[in-house]
């Protein structure tokens, strides 16, 4: 599909609604748009300006989205073409390979993190020799062939596989399906290394693009803290935290998840790493309460639930769930035990999450100290002008009373 690099329309912002964009927040919300001129179609490049005609940015048009424009440049003189995207992608790849030193061909890494790399609408993860891509806006979906060609030049993969995000695709009004866009078909499972650990990744059926790469450094750190401890990994998915804790020398590791498919792969990951983990299937919230009734205790409990707040209306319910899980976990911890509590709901603020953990401690009759506040791994940078993309929280706490 051939698309034009030339601007095809004009988006005019309402008076008094330009400040976020002037501060380089890249999202233009539909309620800030006064007019759309020139009849641009989905994926077309548009000029964004204020009500006085002053230039604000270049972006791609998504008429069905609540965010009809995501700005990619604030430079009026800049040409948004293949060379522009080659430069942006080169910077993103160089950050991981040169600056972070994450060029190990056997490992997994996020190569492009959308707004964090000034490329709104594109996610690229590398698993060994394969790239997995997500096109999250109409503009970048329309330019998928060009972007894949550039990624091939920069990374020389064996294959490029697309994993669409159904909810985002629906909201954007784009139709994408799982497909190999170039090169070899990925195998059923890909083996990757993560520090001392090895993991099998399901690119087609796994969560996100196959694995929670954003927790990479947190898994490594928490594994170290699990040495010599009795560890419980709730919401274990395919065993990431559990495997690292076992490899680091945990006294015992118990892992819980509700998905039979995830636990099957988790068991294979335990066997791959030659570690003993006691896996149990069930609702983690319920199992945490049952373990308490059974009189079991642990030295470390890890809570890494899936996203619990998918809209602002769901934040209150999510906070109750976070408090409930942390309350149950704290009741399972022995003196000086370690609580690792994670939140990947971007709509839940750091203050709200910390309060949920604090309230759980009060109700459990425990005192805590926060040892570390962590976020996404360094290959998942975020743009400070777009704080919504700083979504992951990881609190490491110790029971002090």
Short characterization:
The protein has 401 residues and is an alpha/beta fold.
Describe this structure in words.
With 401 residues, the chain is an alpha/beta fold. It folds into 3 domains: 9-73, Roll (Archaeosine Trna-guanine Transglycosylase, Chain: A, domain 4); 82-183, Transcription Regulator spoIIAA (2-Layer Sandwich), CATH 3.30.750; 190-399, Vaccinia Virus protein VP39 (Rossmann fold). Helix content is 30%, strand content 28%. It has 11 helices and 20 strands. A 7-stranded mixed β-sheet has the order 16-15-14-17-18-20-19, with helices on both faces. A 6-stranded mixed β-sheet has the order 2-6-5-4-1-3. A hairpin with an 8-residue loop joins strand 7 (108-113) and strand 8 (122-127). Helix 2 runs parallel beside helix 4, helix 6 (216-225) packs across helix 7 (240-247) and helix 9 (284-293) runs parallel beside helix 10 (315-332). The longest helix has 18 residues, at 82-99.
Strand and helix map with partners:
Layout: E1 9-13, H1 19-22, E2 27-28, E3 33-37, E4 45-49, E5 55-61, E6 69-73, H2 82-99, E7 108-113, E8 122-127, E9 130-135, H3 138-142, H4 144-155, E10 159-162, H5 166-172, E11 179-183, E12 190-194, E13 197-201, H6 216-225, E14 230-234, H7 240-247, E15 252-257, H8 260-272, E16 278-281, H9 284-293, E17 298-303, H10 315-332, E18 333-343, H11 350-364, E19 368-374, E20 393-399
Parallel strand pairs: 1-4, 9-10, 14-15, 14-17, 15-16, 17-18
Antiparallel strand pairs: 1-3, 2-6, 4-5, 5-6, 7-8, 8-9, 10-11, 12-13, 18-20, 19-20
């Amino acid at each position: 599909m051939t698309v034009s690099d030339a601007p095809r329309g004009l988006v005019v912002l309402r008076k008094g609604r330009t400040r976020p964009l002037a501060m380089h927040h890249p999202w233009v919300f539909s309620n800030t748009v006064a007019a759309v001129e020139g009849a641009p179609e989905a994926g077309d490049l548009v000029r964004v300006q204020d009500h006085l005609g002053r230039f604000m940015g270049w972006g791609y048009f998504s008429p069905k989205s609540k965010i009809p424009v995501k700005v990619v440049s604030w430079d009026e003189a800049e040409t948004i073409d293949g060379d522009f995207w080659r430069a942006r992608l080169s910077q993103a790849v160089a950050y991981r390979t040169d600056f972070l030193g994450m060029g190990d061909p056997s490992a997994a890494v996020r190569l492009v993190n959308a707004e964090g790399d000034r490329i709104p609408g594109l996610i690229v993860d590398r698993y060994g020799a394969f790239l997995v891509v997500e096109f999250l806006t109409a503009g970048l979906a329309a330019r998928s062939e060009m972007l894949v060609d550039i990624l091939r030049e920069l990374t020389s993969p064996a294959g490029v596989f697309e994993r669409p995000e159904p909810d985002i695709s629906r909201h954007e009004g784009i139709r994408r399906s799982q497909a190999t866009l170039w090169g070899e078909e990925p195998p059923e499972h890909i083996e990757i290394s993560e520090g001392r650990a090895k993991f099998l990744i399901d690119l087609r059926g796994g969560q996100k693009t196959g694995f929670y790469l954003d927790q990479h450094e947190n898994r490594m750190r928490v594994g170290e803290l699990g040495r010599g401890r009795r560890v419980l990994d709730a919401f274990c998915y395919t065993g990431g935290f559990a495997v690292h804790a076992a490899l680091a020398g945990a006294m015992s590791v118990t892992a819980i998840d509700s998905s039979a498919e995830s636990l099957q792969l988790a068991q294979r990951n335990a066997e791959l790493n030659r570690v003993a983990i006691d896996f149990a299937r069930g609702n983690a919230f319920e199992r945490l309460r049952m373990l308490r009734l059974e009189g079991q205790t642990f030295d470390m409990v890890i809570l890494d639930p899936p996203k619990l707040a998918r809209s602002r209306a769901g934040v209150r319910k999510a906070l109750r769930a976070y408090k409930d899980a942390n309350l149950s976990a704290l009741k399972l911890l022995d003196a000086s035990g370690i609580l690792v509590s994670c939140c990947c709901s971007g709509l839940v603020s750091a203050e709200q999450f910390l309060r949920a953990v604090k309230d759980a401690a009060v109700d459990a009759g425990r005192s805590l100290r926060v040892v570390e506040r962590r976020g996404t791994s360094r290959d998942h940078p975020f743009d400070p002008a777009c704080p919504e993309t700083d979504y992951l929280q990881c609190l490491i706490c110790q029971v002090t009373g």
